[in-house]
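Hello support,

Our group uses your service weekly, and this is the first time we've seen a run hang past the timeout. The protein is DUF4399 domain-containing protein. I'm not sure whether the cause is the sequence or the server load. Input pasted verbatim:
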Amino acid sequence: MNAALHVVAALAVSTMFAAAAVAQSARDVRGPSPLVAIDKQAPARLIVDPPLAEQLAQGLVFIQYTTENLRIVPVFGKGALDVSPRIGHVHITVDDAPWHFVDASGETVIVVGLPPGPHKVLFELADPMHRVIDSKTISFEIPARSPAPPKQ
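Update from on-call engineer: The timeout came from a worker crash unrelated to the input. Re-ran successfully.
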């Protein structure tokens, strides 16, 4: 009986340590509180995933992105440079167009209407004065779609 009690106790302790090792705090997931200034902020970084495969197969481009050490918000201008934690937005250029659009939502970027073939989307992480901090280019191919059978 004593040996069985030791085994159960060892299992209980092991389970507690394993659960603590994988537990995450809100700060681990969301980053630092936006309500507290940060001294000596780490450099901002842009993370961009490839387009979601299921939508890409339908000719739709859904690209998820996130940032580290910078919050995406729709605030612009010189006064916003002193905000801590740091804030910014993303410039998005499709296929080397001479123009870009701005995303300040932090949500999935959706591009539709591209013809089949190779494409690329440039993401530029920018400060409130539109100066680029980091950038990533995502290359992908829109597959040719087979024509729908004629309706009878």
